[in-house]
Design a protein that fits this description.
Helix content: 25-40%
Protein name: Putative intracellular protease/amidase
Number of helices: 7
Mean pLDDT: 93
Structural class: alpha/beta
Radius of gyration: 16 Å
InterPro entries: Class_I_gatase-like, DJ-1/PfpI
GO molecular function, one term: peptidase activity
CATH superfamily: Class I glutamine amidotransferase (GATase) domain
Number of strands: 9
Low-confidence stretches: none
CATH class: Alpha Beta
CATH architecture: 3-Layer(aba) Sandwich
Keywords: Hydrolase, Protease
């Protein structure tokens, strides 16, 4: 891969998608402003079908492609936003794709309800992880409770999990895994957005 090769980050879309949980991710992955290599990444949405979906915020999203057309080799990461479908049959195709990605060694990131889906699919049984609360996952009867970490976001060997209340930390973990920003730039990014410190803005501008 050359330095200017465009890599794609795929965001799963489905009805009840929690818009606010991935806003920082999509805006900054898709923007070359502070990337280590400008234009290196782009966002594409993927759905179970090509029909429009409606987010929790009422936005209608038309998927760029369908799950059956997506292969791990074509993706830098699969992101699963929070949702209200994670425990239903409608979510199974997304979990199957997440399992395929992990088997191929491609990162997967899940937040909020999507972590519940991963738990039900057994994908958290052998990885350190987090979620909205330990009680949330324990109530699903999964086998990974001993690996739960009470942190905003956790990355264990390319499996990223985040709490609903921590979209900024979730984004930071994704950026670090993808190598989008130099470490010092990522620190400044978090200083601005995570700590609301305006000094981070000026650091970013100088970077």
């Amino acid at each position: 891969m050359t330095e200017n090769t465009l890599r794609t980050v795929h965001v799963a879309v489905y009805d009840t998608l929690a818009d606010w949980e991935i806003g920082f991710v999509t805006a900054h992955v898709n923007s070359p402003a502070w990337h280590r290599t400008p234009g290196r990444f782009a966002i594409r949405t993927v759905g179970a079908t090509d029909a429009p979906v409606t987010t929790m915020g009422g936005l209608r999203v038309l998927p760029d492609l369908t799950l059956d057309a997506l292969t791990p080799a074509d993706s830098a990461m699969l992101i699963l936003p929070g949702n209200e479908l994670f425990a239903t049959e409608a979510y199974h195709p997304y979990l199957a794709k997440a399992r395929e990605f992990r088997a191929a060694g491609v990162p997967v990131a899940a937040i909020c309800g999507a972590t519940g889906g991963l738990a039900l699919a057994g994908l958290l049984d052998d990885h350190e992880h987090t979620s909205n609360a330990a009680e949330f996952l324990n109530g699903l009867g999964y086998g990974g409770a001993h690996l739960y970490r009470d942190e905003p976001a956790v990355n264990d060997r390319g499996l990223i999990t985040g709490a609903a209340q921590a979209p900024i930390e979730f984004a930071r973990a994704i950026f670090a895994e993808l190598g989008i920003y130099e470490p010092g730039v990522l620190d400044s990014w978090y200083k601005l957005y995570g700590r609301q410190d305006p000094a981070g803005f000026y650091e970013l501008m100088s970077a």
